[in-house]
Specification:
Blueprint (H helix, E strand, L loop, with lengths): L1 H44 L2 E2 L2 E2 L6 H5 L6 H9 L3 H4 L5 E6 L1 H5 L5 H5 L5 H9 L2 E3 L4 H10 L4 E4 L5 E7 L3 E5 L5 E11 L2 E6 L6
Parallel strand pairs: 3-9
Antiparallel strand pairs: 1-2, 3-4, 5-6, 6-7, 7-8, 8-9
Amino acid sequence: MSHALTSSTTKSFAAKSFAAKSFSVALSCSLLFAGTVSAQSKQSMNPMVGGQAMYASKDIVDNAVNSADHTTLVAVVKAAGLVETLKGKGPFTVFAPTNAAFAQLPAGTVDNLLKPENKGTLTSVLTYHVVPGRLDAEALMDAVKKGNGTATLKTASGGTLSVMMNGPRNLVVKDAKGQVANISVYDVYQSNGVILVIDKVLLP
């Protein structure tokens, strides 16, 4: 009888010990998963552009000046006197060409636009990349569907851009010249809007 009781007690203790270890392992895995999700969430909230994190708490200009891929864009924005505008309340959707996109323009184009006498033209080109409102990928895709395949956006310059699907998940932007730009980075949220990085300079 005593032996049976001891055996039963040992089995009960072993079962409880196994359950405790299982709970501990499950808890550790749960915490690890939660930490991974949290880290991924923070990364998606502050995506990397030009080697630097883009913080949703900062405005368009304060983020853009930190991107190594947008030094030309920042320079022309300053030359056009648009810094205060793009630091304003907004919201703005900015299609932001990279340095490589500006490099595709004919030689001397950027230097020519930076001349004081061409400030009006420069301002027109830059504001053609700005659309009032906060249009992220989801909003643009919805607009494309409602437009039967093409969303027409009115820019801050008064011109229009056409947005279309390129496959099931990608969007492209077509300018007034018929040139098509790919969006390489989506939904870079700002305190006063959203940036979408593009691979070409859009021309009105």
